[in-house]
Amino acid sequence: MPAPVSDYFQITSCEEGGLLHTRWLRSVNPDEYRTGVRLVKELVLENNIRAWLTDSRKLNSVPFAEQQWLKREIAPAVVMTKLEKIARVFTEDVFHYIAFENLTQVIIEEHRKTLLIGQFTSVDAALAWLQME
């Protein structure tokens, strides 16, 4: 069910109790980023999502203010869900990799959540990892 939410964010699939697959279609400003992330939070909560694949290859690095907002406003709700795995597809930019890794590690430690995080350079690799038991 490809569903363009806007010119910058798309929901590729959303399966009740299963996989949420989203894609950033371009670089976004802070308001657009927050809108997309809020939608992901709602979908994870409403559909008992267990795995989320986010294709972030066209997304620029997330500014510090948005990282703090994510930790403060989004993470507390999401860590209480059935979400078990997040697979992120990104460009081979080491800075983006490290920034995302640091952010997710802080969230996991602060909330004592068991959550598997994987970062990949292709959607196929991310999907294969998500389907592994």
Brief summary:
The chain has 133 residues and is of the alpha/beta class. It is built from 4 helices and 6 strands; from the N terminus they run βββαβαβαβα.
Q: What's the helix and strand layout?
A:
Blueprint: E1 3-4, E2 9-14, E3 19-24, H1 30-47, E4 51-55, H2 64-78, E5 85-89, H3 94-111, E6 116-120, H4 123-131
Parallel strand pairs: 3-4, 4-5, 5-6
Antiparallel strand pairs: 1-2, 2-3
Helix pairs in contact: 1-2, 2-3
CATH classification, class level: Alpha Beta
Oligomeric state: single chain
What is the global morphology?
A: globular
Radius of gyration: 14 Å
Named CATH architecture = 2-Layer Sandwich
CA-CA gap between termini? 25 Å
Give the tally of β-strands: 6
Count of structural domains = 1
Sheet with most strands: strand arrangement: 1-2-3-4-5-6
Average pLDDT number = 89
The helix count comes to 4
Q: Low-confidence spans: pLDDT under 50, at least 5 residues? A: none
* Class from helix and strand fractions: alpha/beta
Strand content: 15-25%
Proportion of residues in helical segments: 40-55%
